[in-house]
């Protein structure tokens, strides 16, 4: 099946997305989000990491998370991409909760092209990307040679080699 045309008129930009879920069928939620991003022409996904089972971060009194990363391209500018992603999250049933709390789906823009983007609503690359094993390990799996702001994703992920992240067997979102 061919992916729909991308929305927007600008040339495509390469993007990285982090996806997480800890409510319901976590792996299915990630797959559904990726399907919606493509079906709506928001992003064309080119690579998807394995899904990782991860402990909650920040607010820890909740169920474990499923986390994955995806690479793709979009024609939307960063703020329009953010708005479209928030629409997907809302349409899937995400509701407001405590910071870092339980969520049906969470989609973060990790990077947009090669240049930084700084706006009160969105900072790219994601300001906490290099501090989160649950993002770095899946991202390094699909983009080991990626460098952001002069930093190697692979080397940053290696710092978290002892972090207790496990791949879910037979639960790939692809």
Automatic annotation (TrEMBL):
**Which SUPFAM superfamilies does this one have?**
6-hydroxymethyl-7,8-dihydropterin pyrophosphokinase, HPPK
What functional role does this protein have? Catalyzes the transfer of pyrophosphate from adenosine triphosphate (ATP) to 6-hydroxymethyl-7,8-dihydropterin, an enzymatic step in folate biosynthesis pathway.
The EC number(s) this enzyme carries = 2.7.6.3
Keyword RNA-binding attached = no
* Biological pathway: Cofactor biosynthesis; tetrahydrofolate biosynthesis; 2-amino-4-hydroxy-6-hydroxymethyl-7,8-dihydropteridine diphosphate from 7,8-dihydroneopterin triphosphate: step 4/4
- InterPro entries xref list: Hppk, Hppk_sf
In which family does this protein belong, per the annotation?
Belongs to the HPPK family.
Q: Name one GO molecular function term.
A: ATP binding
What's the protein called, per UniProt?
2-amino-4-hydroxy-6-hydroxymethyldihydropteridine pyrophosphokinase
> Where do the 7,8-dihydro-6-hydroxymethylpterin-pyrophosphokinase domain residues begin and end?
99-110
């Amino acid at each position: 099946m061919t992916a729909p045309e991308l929305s927007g008129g600008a040339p495509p930009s390469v993007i990285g997305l982090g996806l997480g879920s800890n409510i319901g069928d976590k792996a299915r939620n990630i797959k559904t989000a990726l399907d919606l991003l493509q079906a709506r022409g928001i992003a064309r996904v080119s690579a998807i990491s394995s899904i990782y089972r991860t402990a909650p971060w920040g607010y820890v009194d909740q169920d474990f998370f499923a986390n994955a990363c995806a690479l793709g391209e979009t024609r939307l500018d960063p703020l329009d991409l953010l708005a479209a992603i928030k629409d997907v999250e809302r349409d899937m049933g995400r509701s407001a909760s405590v910071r870092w709390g339980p969520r049906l789906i969470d989609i973060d823009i990790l990077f947009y092209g090669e240049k930084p983007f700084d706006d009160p609503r969105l900072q790219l690359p994601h300001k906490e990307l290099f501090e989160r094993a649950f993002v770095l390990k899946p991202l390094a799996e699909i983009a080991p040679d990626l460098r952001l702001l002069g930093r190697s994703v692979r080397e940053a992920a290696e710092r978290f080699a002892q972090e207790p992240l496990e791949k879910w067997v037979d639960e790939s979102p692809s």
